[in-house]
Amino acid sequence: MTELSRVGLLAALPGELLLKLAARMRREELGPGAPVVTEGETGERFYVVLTGLLSVTQADRGFRGVLKPGEYFGEVALAMDMPRTASVSPMTAVTLASCDRETFDEFIRPLFTDED
């Protein structure tokens, strides 16, 4: 929960909701290499970077940037119900927290609609 509270987007959640979200998230530790998500695939999970660095690439535009701890990815595919818009691959060892579509819809999607 402490790690999630450091993520700007999630810091807006009241403590009780953040605790419930944390309980439903899965923690993953991955080494450099294979993509976590691949451009064009169906999006099923939302990810938060807890440690490490990940590269973001697009087939037609190449390298797009680096994701660092406290940043997140996967929200576009879930929020807009569309295929992944980029591939995201670990550059270093990474620790990620992720949640499924149902958890995203319940806890995180409202954070995007409130910003509009």
Number of strands: 7
Shape: globular
Helix/strand class? alpha+beta
Residue stretches low in confidence (pLDDT < 50, at least 5 long) are none
Quote the average pLDDT: 92
Order of helices and strands: HHEEEEEHEEH
Proportion of residues in helical segments: 25-40%
Strand content: 25-35%
Task: Tell me about this structure.
- The protein has 116 residues and is of the alpha+beta class.
- It has helices at residues 2-5, 15-24, 75-80, 101-115; strands spanning 26-30, 45-51, 54-58, 62-67, 72-73, 87-90, 94-100.
- The strands form two sheets. It has a four-stranded antiparallel β-sheet.
- It starts with a helix and ends with a helix.
